Amino acid sequence: MESTGSKILVIDDEAQIRRFLRVTLTGNGYIVKEVGTGKEGLEEVAIFNPGLVILDLGLPDLDGLEVVRRLREWSKVPIIILSAKEQESDKIAALDLGADDYVTKPFSMGELLARMRAALRHGLSLAEQPVLEFGDLAIDLTHRRITVATNEVKLTPTEYDIVKTLAVNAGKVITHKYLLQAVWGPRYANDIQYLRVYIGQIRRKLERDPSRPSHIITEPGVGYRLL
């Protein structure tokens, strides 16, 4: 049992999915509220004040992407998209608008719970912590210092900015476009190959086996995630 006590809002037009998630998540210690439309969902975020939103893209009234866009105008609540839409364009659009993660139906409950834990941790404002630790990887935000197994690793300023951006969003999928804009600026938003070169350099410095990374994970066609 998770026993977290975190409040979860499920926005999905499939009553069967809502019931399944309510029963399963309640059994894992979460407090669950479920609604079937985007309009209800937007209202309940303000009223219920959830720690996490699970959102379907195919809603009967508002497009799920529009729900993400409206939420991000005033709320930082973590959002996990749970949808049968498999196109990478849908995933990228949702993540670029501010969703934290994307799980495709049909889904594994174990995977969803793991993604929820990561999103909830991200909701605790990692950027406010002076030192972020991920297994043997530690990132000292105050002193711009990175260590692996207590050994300091020398990164270039650009490499450090990439790692920092991923670290303060740990567990969240960061799209190529977001990462490129955050580190290099809007003019570089489409230079994906440029980013891949830097990620390769960073992995050679941080990973035990760069060919099988355990920290910086590739989300094919979408971006990267720091575990």
Secondary structure elements and pairings:
Elements: E1 7-11, H1 15-27, E2 31-35, H2 38-48, E3 52-55, H3 64-71, E4 79-83, H4 88-97, E5 101-104, H5 109-122, E6 131-134, E7 137-140, E8 145-148, E9 151-153, H6 157-167, E10 174-175, H7 176-183, H8 192-206, E11 216-219, E12 223-226
Parallel strand pairs: 1-2, 1-3, 3-4, 4-5
Antiparallel strand pairs: 6-7, 7-8, 8-9, 10-12, 11-12
Notes on the structure:
- The protein folds into two domains: 7-122, Response regulator (Rossmann fold, 3-Layer(aba) Sandwich); 127-226, Winged helix-like DNA-binding domain superfamily/Winged helix DNA-binding domain (Arc Repressor Mutant, subunit A), CATH 1.10.10.10.
- It is globular.
- The protein is an alpha/beta fold and 227 residues long.
- The model has no long low-confidence stretch (mean pLDDT 89).
- The protein contains eight helices and twelve strands.
- A hairpin with a 3-residue loop joins strand 11 (216-219) and strand 12 (223-226).
- Helix content is 40%, strand content 21%.
- Helix 2 packs parallel to helix 3, helix 3 packs parallel to helix 4 and helix 6 packs across helix 8.
- The strands form three sheets. A five-stranded parallel β-sheet has the order 2-1-3-4-5, with helices on both faces. A four-stranded antiparallel β-sheet has the order 6-7-8-9, with helices on one face.
- It has helices at 15-27, 38-48, 64-71, 88-97, 109-122, 157-167, 176-183, 192-206, and strands spanning 7-11, 31-35, 52-55, 79-83, 101-104, 131-134, 137-140, 145-148, 151-153, 174-175, 216-219, 223-226.
